[in-house]
Amino acid sequence: MDGLDSIKLVIQQIKQEPIELIGKNEIALNPFKVNNIDRFTGINTVNTPFEYLQLAQQFYLQKAGARLVKVKIRRLAFSGIDYSKIISYKGIDYAQFRLRFYAADSLKAGPGKEICSEIVEISDRDNRQINVDLEKYHIIVPGKSFFVAIEWIKDFVNQGFSNAFDRKSNSIKQSVNFRPAIGILDTQGDKSNIWSLNLKRQWKPFTFYAPYFTDLAITAIVMQE
């Protein structure tokens, strides 16, 4: 072969899912430190409307097959402040939301078939980190990728407000929000691991923050042989 027939080999580095070994056969995927999270998504403003039903974090396993036993979620909350004497007993940070669990769709690469037979509903008063034990649900991950999604419950209990400067009217505008606001990690990459379910119930890659913030502050803990 002469120089015109040569083939250039390109070595491509594949992003590995951050993992942490926390016990025998127990692995934490996408771990985070609570105090390192200072950015949040799920906040609706006049300039950046949040028009989604769910946000899902994608996780990757080094080999197929696992049992999902716990998730940890970082949300926006002002824990440690007692509001019980000035407003309702639930506090200003009270939130209800649902957790949904999906296998990866082999064709579209996004969330596919649900892998939990029940919808897990969470109620939390003012914790910045929510720890959810999933042992009783017996959630089996069949492949090497899966999703954990936050589903917002848009009712009066979760309703709040945010103020933002509106450039068009040159004034402060108030927008309706629904808790919780979910933390996002300061990770960078060419591919976002966040997917969104829009109002048409279509799953799409959530690239609003890419390439600088590619992951939600959700840790999945799995058991794997």
Strand percent estimate: 35-45%
What does the largest sheet look like? 7 strands, antiparallel
Mean pLDDT: 84
Count of alpha and pi helical runs: 0
How many strands? Answer: 18
Question: What's the structural domain tally?
Answer: 1
Task: Report the helical percentage.
Answer: under 10%
Shape: globular
Low-confidence segments, given as residue ranges, are 1-16, 83-91
Determine the structural class based on helices, strands and strand pairing: mainly beta
Gyration radius, to the nearest Å?
20 Å
What separation lies between the terminal Cα atoms? 48 Å
Please write the string of helix (H) and strand (E) elements. Answer: EEEEEEEEEEEEEEEEEE
What does this structure look like?
With 225 residues, the protein is an all-beta fold. The chain has one domain (17-223). It has strands at 19-23, 26-29, 40-41, 52-60, 66-74, 95-104, 111-114, 120-124, 129-133, 139-141, 145-152, 159-166, 171-178, 182-185, 194-198, 203-205, 215-216, 218-223. Strands 4, 6, 7, 8, 11, 15 and 16 form a 7-stranded antiparallel beta sheet that branches. Strands 1, 2, 5, 9, 10 and 18 form a 6-stranded antiparallel beta sheet that branches. Strands 3-14-17 form a 3-stranded antiparallel beta sheet, with no helix packed on it.
